[in-house]
Amino acid sequence: MTHYTLPEGFIAACGCAINSTLYPTAAMNQMAYGSSAAYGPACGKCFNLTLLDAFTANPEYYPNTTNSVVVKITDLCPYSRKGWCNATVTGTNSGDHYLNFDLSWPSSSIPSTFFPSDPSLYGYSDFGVWNVSYESISCEYWQGWHHPAALGNVVGYDSCCPDDPTSSSDDTCPSYSDQAGISPYSHVGSADAIVPHALSALLSMLLIPFFLW
């Protein structure tokens, strides 16, 4: 897992309601997101993410407390030749994983102490990349669930952000890519603003900072 900056009120790739940014959200790597432009099948899905250890720490760092957060996928972390979001069906990312969550952080909905650190030992407080465990869960457990303004799509914006998507194709967003076709209404914005993915099941994943893309 990594983290990146997503300002409150920013319309990300899925086009989720602006107030969704007031609660924990994350981008997902392109392959898992299921698209290379606009929204994708991962949009709107919720996951419980639990920190395990700091991936880049030397010596290894295992926190004394186990911090978890339930996030809603609202954005794409696009493929690049190097980095944490570059896994494909034939190869893993820089951390030897197929799945990566890019957490929107700092966030008013997540404690500033969410990421443990030991600056006296390492000389810095932000490890940037963490091994995490994850579980796909109902969005009823997401902080924004009881706030209608945080659910659904931005009005008048080509988007797809189900409140609580299931495995049914009836409530899952389509995939847009070079192979599947690009939505004619796709918006072009910053690298983390408009991109999609397809879901894999691994026991761990990585979360990456925006500056490492």
Give an overview of the whole structure.
The protein is 4% helix and 20% strand. It is built from 2 helices and 7 strands; from the N terminus they run E-E-H-E-E-E-H-E-E. The protein has a 7-stranded mixed beta sheet with strand order 1-5-2-4-3-6-7. The C terminus is likely disordered.
Summarize the entry for a quick read:
This protein has a single domain, classed as RlpA-like domain (Barwin-like endoglucanases, Beta Barrel). The chain has helices at residues 30-33, 119-122, and strands spanning 2-4, 25-29, 46-54, 68-77, 101-104, 130-137, 205-207.
Give the percentage of residues in beta strands. Answer: 15-25%
Mean pLDDT: 83
Amino-to-carboxy terminus distance: 12 Å
Look at the structure and name the CATH superfamily.
RlpA-like domain
CATH class wording: Mainly Beta
Q: Which ranges are low-confidence, i.e. pLDDT below 50, for 5 or more consecutive residues?
A: 183-213
Write down the overall geometry.
globular
Instruction: Tell me the total number of β-strands.
Output: 7
Secondary-structure element order, as H and E? EEHEEEHEE
Helix content: under 10%
Domain tally? 1
Count the helices. How many? 2
In order across it, which strands form the biggest sheet? 1-5-2-4-3-6-7
Structure keywords:
single chain; 213 residues; mainly beta; Barwin-like endoglucanases; 7-stranded mixed β-sheet; 20% strand
List the SSEs and their pairings.
Blueprint: E1 2-4, E2 25-29, H1 30-33, E3 46-54, E4 68-77, E5 101-104, H2 119-122, E6 130-137, E7 205-207
Parallel strand pairs: 1-5, 2-4
Antiparallel strand pairs: 2-5, 3-4, 3-6, 6-7
